[in-house]
Amino acid sequence: MDPNGWRPWSDLPPEILSTIGRRLDTRMDVLRFRGVCSSFRSSIPPPRREAALFPLRIPRPPSPAPLSLRASTVCALEAPDGAAPSGRARWLLKLEEPELGHMQILSLFSQRAIAHLPRRFPKVLDSLQFRIVEICRQYTLDHGRRTGGLVQGIQKAVMHPDSVWSDLDQCSVYFIDGQGQLGYWKYGDENCSHVVDPQGCAYDDIVVYGGKVCVVDGLGSVSQIDSSFRLRSFSLPIYGADRRRRLRSGGNWTHLVVSSGDLYAVDRYIRHGANASDPMYTENMRVYRLDQQCGRWEEVRSLGNSAFFLCKLCSFAVPARELGGCDGNCIYYAEKAYSYFSREDVKVFSLADRSIRWLDFSDSLLGTTTRH
Q1: CB 335 within 8 A of CB 279
Q2: pLDDT tier for residue 36 given thresholds of 50, 70 and 90
């Protein structure tokens, strides 16, 4: 014991250490907790390997071939002490474990594997030397072939619950199909089902917020999917009923982003090119924060130090000051997403002056950027 009466953390009773460890939600946090000392390591079991769980096979009769649900993790990688100012994170990357013992780095904005890493990037990602912070999870549905891409007609998928301690038989997969309709698959079911929606809405995005699966329709109205797979209204709409009409020159899309415990909606106005061969492009964005007490949206003029990322298969927020080469009060997004594995064109929308600029991500490892 310390002469001043202080006792080391390793002397905590096993039941208290176990209670603390069981409150950790991510695999990386559990690994770091168990790496502190033998007392910490023996208090909780090791987390299951991603490759032991995924791909998760989802039946789709009458086809004999099931769908494959794959999981990847967006992480912030912090350099060792002294290698970066304040020891802050220097890279933002997406990791996938396609097979046991093999970790793959993917582009943030697609499923393309990054073949050439920057010179300064570490050769080995040792969780005891580098702090790897899990930011969000991304799920994809494919046909079981790494070259097959997303299942045609599936816009986005989430799995819930999604804790490192969750048992598979407690989990369900929720998705938005190509028509904007909601579907789900409960572990053990023989087929996917559609969520009953009396309003017949078309939905733009789906996220897990506050322990609930939330979806947003074209008017900016958020609903929760309860444990019985029924919809419950969670917010008033942002816009009136005439907003969703599709104009010949373009349309709107709403993304949901969870940041610092709040739910945000990013309304993205997309305009078609001058002719059929020109791609669509983003012309403007507006951001709204949900006031949970009254269920209303409030327009946000500034994100402060936060940077939002709108990826094809997930959206998330990060503190810009903790990432080299990242600007706060900005929204990062990929304009062209023709292919599941194709190289992306990344742009940055500034809420300060509403400007849009191109960004070369150097293979989408944030922290090694070059601006144009």
Answers
A1: yes
A2: confident
